[in-house]
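Re: that backbone. Tokens:
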């Protein structure tokens, strides 16, 4: 009997998605799909707004990573207006960005994927959540909350609030850092660096005990992309985009403003999310991955000492070849948290960060601009075009999660085929399929949000399309 299994919604991710698994008559998986069933439409309703409003409008895309959109919007507005931000303003923007990555990566590792890593994929779903984690490992849970608070306090200190800050404007920022604020942030560095190192240790210990899973769980071949410094080291705030192939060989390095020469987007009729790819290779040959795993594979090194040493160990996992094992996203994510905390210390030690030269008021209006940065989930691109009055005529956003659309879909298909044997469907298998999406930490909550519980319902459908059995998880 032909069956279609539907998992909807996928849990412990930001936003809404569903998975359909199409079965063969012999009980094996024919194909599994990830469907992004939200419609965003954000670019269209931004048209007609003044370009300088975008740093405040675009953070409303999402409450999870508003800082990333806030800063990318400001960078694009700088370019439209022809007002490069002064160095102190860029240092402050980068400091806020570090707070964003710390709180987002930390929350994902401990609160969203932590239940799988610390309690097990097959643990009772009633306990396999953040509350169950707090009961099982209260000390870890408290430190995880503290890590997220540290990142959010950096954002609040600069932008007045933890979500949807008011800080970056076209040409700079609207507030200088005070000495007492610098010392308050600095006071949290040591303890939270220890928490980040603990997260790395948790992941490495889990990997040692679950190497069989790591080496069969969505091991994909793809290119990788990240923003880098001139020496190809990691930079989450500014630089050129580096794209490498599945062997780690550099394909391109280009300024973000030229992204349309290198990146195109493919469309499928079963998802609202596009599939970006490297234009010269076409789709699907030119697919690549971004985010923590993409960055660790695309950069040559990390400049801060502790994260730099950990990155060398990461590179050694496959003897210098790119790390394609999807579950190592979690390891890469916590290396980045270490980097960000070390980078916070460096930024606070820079004398220019206390400067009041934070806004460039000179304008050389260009009418078009691109702003890029590395959001927690990958390379974020904002592209604005405006008329002579500053009114936006076109907006193009390539949101970080979109770059990983192919990878998430392939991961779902791979995990379903690996773990569903003989047509038997267990709850732990459903969770592994969800975990294939979860590892990428997608942020799909661009326009809609769920209210209430997140149930799963599986429908088994006969060849005539009739539902013959329904299994529900409330």
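Recovered sequence:
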């Amino acid at each position: 009997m032909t069956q279609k299994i539907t998992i909807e919604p996928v849990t412990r991710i930001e936003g809404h998605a569903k998975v359909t698994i199409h079965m063969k008559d012999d009980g094996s998986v024919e194909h599994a799909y990830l469907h992004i069933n939200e419609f965003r439409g954000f670019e269209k309703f931004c048209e007609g707004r003044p370009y300088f409003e975008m740093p405040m409008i675009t953070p409303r895309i999402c409450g999870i990573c508003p800082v990333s959109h806030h800063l990318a919007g400001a960078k694009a507005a700088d370019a439209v207006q022809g007002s490069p931000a002064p160095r102190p303003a860029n240092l402050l923007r980068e400091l806020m960005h570090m707070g964003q990555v710390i709180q987002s990566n930390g929350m994902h590792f401990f609160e969203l994927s932590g239940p799988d890593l610390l309690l097990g994929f097959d643990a009772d779903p009633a306990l396999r959540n953040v509350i169950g984690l707090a009961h099982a490992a209260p000390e870890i849970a408290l430190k995880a909350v503290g890590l997220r608070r540290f990142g959010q306090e950096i954002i609040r200190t600069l932008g007045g609030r933890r979500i949807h800050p008011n800080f970056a404007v076209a040409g700079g920022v609207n507030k200088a850092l005070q000495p007492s604020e610098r010392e308050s942030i600095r006071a949290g560095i040591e303890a939270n660096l220890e928490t980040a190192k603990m997260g790395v240790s948790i992941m490495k210990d889990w990997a040692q005990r679950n190497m069989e899973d790591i080496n069969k769980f969505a091991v994909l071949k793809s290119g990788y992309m990240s923003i880098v410094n001139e020496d190809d080291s990691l930079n989450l705030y500014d630089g050129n985009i580096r794209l490498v192939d599945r062997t780690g060989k550099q394909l391109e390095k280009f300024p973000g403003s030229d992204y349309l020469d290198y990146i195109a987007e493919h469309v499928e009729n079963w998802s609202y999310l596009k599939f970006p790819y490297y234009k010269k290779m076409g789709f699907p040959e030119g697919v690549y991955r971004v985010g923590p795993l993409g960055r660790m594979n695309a950069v040559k090194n990390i400049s801060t000492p502790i994260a730099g040493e950990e990155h060398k160990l990461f590179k050694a996992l496959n003897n210098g070849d790119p790390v394609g094992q999807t579950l190592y996203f979690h390891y890469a994510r916590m290396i980045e948290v270490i980097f960000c905390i070390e980078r916070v210390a460096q930024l606070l030690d820079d004398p220019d960060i206390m400067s009041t030269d934070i806004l460039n008021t000179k304008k050389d209006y260009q009418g078009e601009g691109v702003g890029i940065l590395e959001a927690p989930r990958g390379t974020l691109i904002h592209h604005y075009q405006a008329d002579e009055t500053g009114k936006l005529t076109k907006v193009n956003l390539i949101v970080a999660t979109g770059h990983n659309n192919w990878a998430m879909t392939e991961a779902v298909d791979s995990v379903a085929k690996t773990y569903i044997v003989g047509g038997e469907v267990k709850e732990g298998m459903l969770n592994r399929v969800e975990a294939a999406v979860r590892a990428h930490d997608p942020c799909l909550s661009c326009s809609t949000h769920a209210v209430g519980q997140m149930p799963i319902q599986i429908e088994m459908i006969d060849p005539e399309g009739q539902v013959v059995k329904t299994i529900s998880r409330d």
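Confidence is low (pLDDT under 50) at residues 447-455. The two ends are 26 Å apart (CA to CA).
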